[in-house]
Specification:
heterodimer; A: about 270 residues; alpha/beta; Elongation Factor Tu (Ef-tu), domain 3; Rossmann fold; 7-stranded mixed beta sheet; 6 helices; globular; B: about 300 residues; TIM Barrel; 8-stranded parallel beta sheet; 4-stranded antiparallel beta sheet; 9 helices
């Protein structure tokens, strides 16, 4: 069973990667040692006592040897704005983690398609590393609003040893428009080559995940998605973050955040 | 990382209407699951009691999402008493609580008078130390708060539950009434061994830019530090109006908060929303009560109950 810790985590890095998307690296050895790809941390941000809830953030990287955890966050509201003000070397956050059911690719997955929209790239990055290390042939598709927001591209290049397929809404990098045509083409080409994908993983805005789940289903490829909901406890107690599934309402925090797409009622 | 309260010579045990608690701190129903969810953080057997999530006879699906919204110094929720039903609680959660040595208080919910009784009857052979009758949930259309706002329905549901069990019966009251003391007296007259309050205050949050409510159900229950002054006032009013003990809650996040409720008349307290920010909150509250007692030369925590000097 996955054990949770509440770790006091000094900040090592807190920098803007591009267009309101930030990288935070913290020292959290217990979480770093236990984290599996697709899990998240539930972050208590100091200095905002009148905002009482933690913020769930996907784990972008967990380095067990260094004892560090990377998180990517997009500045959207009060909490994430406040996070940008925290100074590395001085501030610390408190993390509950590693939380949740992560990615569960088929054990014999040989060819995987990972699809990320925006900061959805974060929880897919550890999966890319793990699949590549296991010898799978991994194709990554990254979509973003504009070139500067394609902040994970270099890490995916490093993990996979090749350029991910990219799209930007404004055409400043890669294919112009949404990333779903790239996904459809990748699925078709793989099938045409006679080496179809055996796993699709997607994290991003919900409309994207729904579309990708549909494309994967058409291509008869097993697909997982990572869902996000407003969350209070982050440990499975409060039932705030439930997702509609074929088995009824299930908790995004501990039954997810990763669900087989076929179980999600969109 | 599993915390227990620190050692002390202060006597911490309290008697909440026949429920023996090793210390005056339990959990607010719905914020702590059935205890297991927090066992990595606190030894739930070291708490005065674990009060479980509201349970109905058969499972309830609860409300649509979004179910919560953060508001200044608090949060709104409209979970809607989602639960898998009393059989699941009996088969999975209560045996676990018994195995770890926790004192279990089961929060009982229903859509009808008969359903409350049926839930209690289903639990009479199970390892349960007390029942908390939930006539105060603001997030369901039938049962819950609709029963807890009027003297006749309070008397009826509490009377029927009383007849169904000899175990300690705690009645959880809603703050969404004109006169909470009148409701507390009705519960006492119908056989309650204790009353607990407050449940959440009915509230609402709006996203102006989208012109939409923040909660799918539009309205929900306010909890957290924002409600503490209201909760303290109501605990004080009720403690003066009834002879049965009071379980106080509403925005408690540290030992001093708990002491304030006890001074206002509470025999025990519950920690709720604070668990979300701080998964060690229950043990922190117990430790804080110990700190206060040692500082103030209080040998027995019972000395604090109703000791407010007005």
């Amino acid at each position: 069973m996955n054990h949770l810790v509440n770790e006091h985590a000094p900040l090592l890095v807190n920098e803007e990667l591009g267009r309101g998307i930030w990288l935070m690296t913290v020292e959290a050895p217990a979480i770093a040692a236990g984290a599996r790809p697709g899990q998240f941390v539930h972050v208590r941000i100091p200095g905002m006592d009148d905002h009482i809830l933690r913020r769930p953030l996907g784990i972008y990287a967990a380095d067990a040897a260094a004892g560090t955890v990377d998180m990517m966050y997009q500045v959207l509201g009060f909490g994430t704005s406040r996070m940008t003000e925290l100074a590395p070397g001085a501030a610390a956050v408190e993390l509950i983690g590693p939380v949740g059911r992560g990615w569960q690719p088929p054990e014999d997955a040989r060819r995987a398609l990972l699809v990320a929209g925006g900061v959805g790239s974060a929880p897919l990055h550890p999966l890319a590393c793990e699949l590549a290390a296991a010898g799978a042939d991994v194709t990554a598709v990254l979509g973003a609003g504009t070139a500067e927001a394609l902040v994970a591209r270099e890490r995916f290049c490093a993990a996979l040893g090749r350029e991910p397929l990219c799209s930007t809404d404004d055409g400043t990098y890669g294919r112009a428009g949404f990333c779903t045509p790239l996904v459809a083409e990748a699925l078709e080409e793989a099938a045409a080559e006679g080496r179809p994908f055996d796993y699709v993983a997607c994290c991003g805005p919900e409309p994207l995940m729904r579309l990708v789940a549909g494309l994967a289903a058409e291509a008869r490829v097993f697909c997982e998605v990572s869902l996000e909901r407003r969350m209070a406890c982050g440990v499975g107690a409060c039932l705030s973050c439930v997702v509609d599934t074929v088995d009824g309402k299930r908790r995004a925090c501990v039954d997810g955040p990763v669900f087989p797409a076929e179980e999600v009622v969109w | 990382m599993q915390r227990v309260p620190r050692e002390t010579n202060v006597r911490l045990a309290v008697d909440l209407g026949g429920l023996a608690m090793r210390n005056p701190v339990t959990t607010a129903s719905g914020t702590f699951g059935a205890g297991r969810e927090y066992h990595d953080f606190v030894d739930v057997a070291a708490l005065g009691a674990v009060t479980t999530k509201g349970v109905s006879l058969h499972g309830w699906e609860g409300n649509a999402s979004p179910r919560i919204a953060e508001v200044p110094s608090g949060m709104l929720n409209s979970i809607g008493l989602q639960n898998p039903g009393v059989d699941h609680l009996k088969a999975h959660e209560l045996p676990w609580l018994a195995e770890v040595g926790a004192t279990a208080v089961v929060n009982v919910s229903g859509h009808s008078f008969d359903e409350y009784v049926a839930v209690i009857e289903a639990l009479e052979e199970a390892p349960v130390a007390a029942y908390e009758v939930n006539i105060s949930c603001p997030n369901v259309d039938a049962g819950g708060m609709t029963m807890g706002c009027h003297v006749p329905s309070v008397e009826k549901v509490v009377g029927m539950c009383r007849a169904a069990t000899a175990r300690p019966l705690i009645v959880k009251l809603t703050p969404n009434v004109t006169d909470v003391a009148e409701i507390a007296r009705a519960a006492e007259a119908a056989g309650a061994d204790a009353v607990s309050l407050i449940n959440t205050l009915l509230g609402m949050a709006v996203d102006a830019r989208r012109r939409r409510p923040q909660l799918a159900r539009v309205v929900g229950g306010l909890s957290g530090p924002a409600v503490k002054p209201v909760a303290l006032r109501m605990v004080w009013q009720v403690a003066r109006a009834v002879r049965v003990p009071v379980l106080g809650m509403g925005g408690i996040s540290c030992g001093l908060d708990a002491v304030e409720f006890m001074l206002a008349g509470a025999t025990a307290v519950a920690v709720g929303t604070a668990n979300f920010a701080n998964p060690h909150a229950t043990v922190d509250v117990i430790d804080g009560i110990i700190d206060y007692c040692e500082e103030q030369g209080v040998a027995d925590v019972n000395e604090l109950i109703g000791a407010l000097e007005c």
